[in-house]
Structure formats: C-alpha cells, structure tokens
Amino acid sequence: MIKYYQHLQRFKFNYFNQKLPKKLVLCLIGTIILGNSTSIFAQSVTIDLSKTYQTITALGSMELDAAEVDELEAASMRMHWDPEYNKELEMSGNDNADPNVLDISKFKHNAEYVAKAKYAKSKGVNIFIATVWSPPGWMKDMSKNAYSDQNQWACPFVNNLCGGVLPRDKYAEYAEWLIGGILSWKNETGIDLYAVGLQNEPEFPEPYGSAVYTPSELKDLLIVVGRRFKKEGITTKIYLGEILWAQNNVLAFMRAVNDDPEAKDYLHAFAIHNYDTDGIKVGGPSAASWQLTYKEAQRVSPKKELWMTETSGHSFDEAGGMLLAANLYNALNYGNINAWNYYYLRSNMNMVWHVSKSFYKFIKPGAIRVSAVSSDTEVLSLAFKNPLNSTTTVILINNGTTAKTVKISGSGLPSSFSAFTSNASSHTSSGTKAMVNNEVTLTLAKNTVTSLSGNLVITEADNDKETLMAALKVYPNPATGIAYLFSQTPITGTVEFTNVLGTIVKSISLSGNEQGSSKIDITDLAKGVYSVTVKGPQLMKTKLVVE
Questions:
Q1: Cβ(406)–Cβ(42) below 8 Å
Q2: Tens-digit pLDDT profile for residues 432-443
Q3: What share of the chain is helix, strand, coil (3-state, %, to 5)?
Q4: Which of 24, 27, 110, 401 has the fewest CB within 10 Å, making it most exposed?
Q5: Could you read off the pLDDT of 286-329 as tens digits, one per residue?
Q6: CA-CA distance, 248 to 478, in Å (whole number)?
Q7: H or E stretch including 178?
C-alpha cells in the first residue's frame, strides 16, 4: 500500500507541475492498480479451526495400483462385484439350494485384485469397500429392464447381467451371496471389508453388469441383508444409492430408507455418483443438490454419512483438472461428504492426477473439515485439521483467469506451511510459507490447486472438545459383544467407558498395543450410548452405541 501511495504522489506531482493531460494521468493510475492488483489488493481466506463440519472416512480410487498407493497416496480401495462380467468375485452357480447354509468354498476373488489389496494394506490403506454391479445371473429375472442396445460394449458376450431385476424371492440368496463374498475376501486377503454397496446405479439398465430397483425394492433388500448381517455377526457396513442427481430420484431413494424405522438402522452411508444422465459422462450434483442430499442424510438418527463413490470422464487437460477440483469442492463444502472415490486414476502425467494428489496426499482419514471463508468467489477454499496425524491442511483452488494474491489468517494455525501446487503439467513443492502475526500471504497462479500442510496446534483446552473425537475410531458402531478401537498411534493407557449419567462403568488398561488395533470385550456393557476415553500419552475420545 505504501508503494501504491508513492505512485499516486508521483503522478499527482507530475500532473500539477508538468500539466500532464488529466485523462492520461487517470489511465496511468488505472494501469498501476490493475497491473499490481495481485500484490496490492490481497484476497482473504479466514480459517476458523473451532467451527467444524464432517470427518473424512477416506479418499481413494478403484482397485488401487502401486502408483496410486505410493505416489497418489489414496487411502481407500473400491471394488466392483459381479461374478460373470468382471469376474472380480467368481461364483459358479448357486452354492446350494438353502440360502441359510453357506458353502464358502464356492467363492473366489480375482487374484490380481487380491494382490493389489494386500499391497495397499501393507502401505497403510485400511478402507476397502465393494459395490455390487450385478447379482449373479442365475438370480435375476431378465424379462424386465434388460439393457436393449446389444451393440454397445460387451453386453452380447455377457450372460444375463446387463440390466434385469432381482426377484424378491431371491433376496435371501443375495444376502447369502454377499456374506460369501465378504468372508472369502477376508480369507484370501486377511483384510476386513469396511463396507459393501447393495447395487451400483440401480435406476436404469446399463451396457455392463447392472440391475434395476425401485426405491421401495432397494429398501426392502436392505432390510433382508441387514437382518442377515446382524444374525451372522457381519460387521461390514452397508451403503446404498450410488445414484445420479441427473436422474432426479436421489431423494426418493434416500427417503424410502429414512422413512422406514428398521431399514434406516441398517444403513451406514448414502452414496452419490458424479455423472450425467447416462452414468458415463462427467456431470455431478450442483451445490444446491449436494446441500439437499446432505440434509436428507442427516434427517434421521443415526445420521448417515454421505459418500461420492464413483466419478470419471474428466478430460486430462487443464479444463478437466479444474472441473475435478470444482467437483471435489462442491462435494466437500456443500455436501459435507465423508468419502470420495474416483473410478480409475492410472497416470501421473495429467492434471486429473495432479489435482487428485492435491487432495489425497493431504486430506487423510480422520481429517475434520473446518471453516475456510474466501473473500473472492474465484478462490475456492477448504481447510481441515486431523488429530490422527496432527496436521492442518488448507486447499486453495484458483478458478480465475489471472493470478491471485491471497492472505490466509486464523487463530491457532501452524507457524509455517509446506506448500504444493498442482497445474496441468505437475504437482510440485512451492516452498515453505511462514506465518507472521497469524497471517501468511501467497500468490496463486491461474487454474491451479495449492495445498498447504502444517502441524496441528493442540492446546490443553482442546483436550475436552468434541473435535478430538476423530483421533479414536471404534467399530462396529453400534456393537454387540466385541468392539475394536483404532487410532494412528498405539493405544496405550486407561480406556474408560462412561454412560449417559456420567458414571464410569468399565475401565481397562492397555499397554503397547499394535498401532491401529485394540480388541475390547464389551459383553458386560448394557445397551446404551457410552463415551470412550483413552487416557494415555495422547487423550483420545469417541462414542460407542452398544446394542
């Protein structure tokens, strides 16, 4: 501002002493202002770490390859199950005539995907989800909703998988088939399946493994599967939907579940896909649609997480990368989503990869979104704090056609940030940015995504806040008999279970537990809601519902 003032003084002097034309002086002053706008008039992004939103479950991709694990640092892996089209989960015919008697030997997972999962697990990936693209062909009725264009893709070579419906008298067989897939996955990989989706894009037949359900049918299937999971002690969570806002039936599918007192209790998350009407071209919900989806997911108790489980189709150039960045922003900011999953990310030579890395590398499981308000509508801002890995992250998306100077401020921010910038050609470090008087100023090139990462500053006063609850995870939740505690650090110290009256009803000591895993016997706890507190080197809290 001082430099700007000096410019004005100089031109004021010249105007009055040398009689320069007034229009020329005004033009020159305008040139100074416009030419120096990124350095004179910095836009502001204000971070409020005390104002919190959703907790991130994971950001990931389909069937992770080594580069996605090592370079992209995706935190979740999604698989699609249909037994004949992709043969990711193979099953030759019915295991037997009784849906209540499971022959696990009849189930086998694709060896390539098993190997990928094991590698991902060895590198710290803990969230593995599956979605059903089609029930086995022998279960389905192809006289209804079969895919009609048999000239597209591989449909002519597939046995009864492109479209069709699952008859209600096969719902029990379907539940058994899911359990077979879950248990065989555990046997072959040693990995617990975190969640399973009941049907990929259930609204319309597609030219690949698919099936069609009405909202009422999918809700009824959820009840059958949920009852069977509960009976068999299956802790894998259930999500459903994987529907498109472009079809205009998202809320109908959600309300069918939420309005049923039994169905809603079996569901962990609703899922959306980021596509246009055909389920192929990229599209996705608007900000308003994301807000409506989130509102419906939160309408019932227990509240549902909201996931985006598939998108693709972005062009690999600057336009496609910036569209993906905007899609991510809308989903995280307006939808308060907990999980995001790209269909395939296989190359590190394009902007879609670089933009994904700007998010995946820094927004890890357990990250809590906090308030980040930008004064410039062309600078989209997101911020997160993560008690699990003690980081604070700021994401800045410059959608403008010019460079932007941005001043970031807020109480309790790190003393410095490591900065990384993604553009059409690379994802590279842009140095360390030091905070001065709780502020840091940086310039964002046009059409870029900048990620800032620093240490999370935790004070003693923060220890009792709900925001630290994400440092400790418990599943299943609700639980019966056995619960597992998870954190990014070894769980050492005293674990206390406190009921709603504030009474400590159970206390155990843990010492030197393996990172991320502690098995707790809760058979002595009555049904109810409990606060779980680990009092050790790091105070950690969460809540547990016992059924």
A1: yes
A2: 999 998 899 999
A3: 30, 30, 40
A4: 401
A5: 999 999 999 999 999 889 999 999 999 999 999 999 999 999 99
A6: 32
A7: helix 171-189
